Amino acid sequence: MTGVQTCALPICFPVTIPLPFPSHDTEEKITNVSNVISSEPTVQPIVKVKYETLIIEEGSIQVTQEVIGNSWIVGSATNGLVGTNTGTQGGGQQVVGGSGRTATIVSVESPNNLFVERFIFTNFNDTGNTSGDWGSGSLVMGSGETATSLSVYKGSVSVVNATLTLDNTTNVGVLQLSANGGSNWENVTNATNHSFTYIGSDLRFRLGASGGTATIVSTKVQYNVI
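Given the sequence above, the corresponding structure tokens read:
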């Protein structure tokens, strides 16, 4: 079914016309609509075609590695023994399933050295050091709450400078970056390039609210490595 606005002078009214063809090319649809209506000499078809612009944003690549822990693995020298076994990789009794398995981030790379966080997913949320609400398309922090990321860059070369940019800085009292995995945090200014005193190869950001609720939809970190 296709909706078309028709004009039978002096009155214009919308009509719905069943089209005897499947959905194909837009120009073919318009031609068929015109042919159906043209049998009425007092009706002039007005067809409007709407176009949408889709913006595709390439995300960061996070590579993780998971240890087997206490999981029972067939053929494993430590986790594949039948019966009582406390010599597993995790050091506990082996179980069927995923007991004791932990994941670590091996590397993180972003296109053009630009990391973008829109807070839709929690892949980069350091949940153990985040008290704000990270997810559903925004980061919401009450006064005194903080949000800390996991590695937004991790590689074999060091980060020498970076720029942290927030879409909204209202009630944001803490803006920090760390180039060495959180061992040293350095205060930064929004949308201003910062040269690190303590360089490293594990880049993270930390935000905090003060004086009220802070709501952030987009956080970007542009970094340079050597």
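The chain has three domains: 2-46, 59-109, 110-226. Try to locate this feature in the token string yourself.
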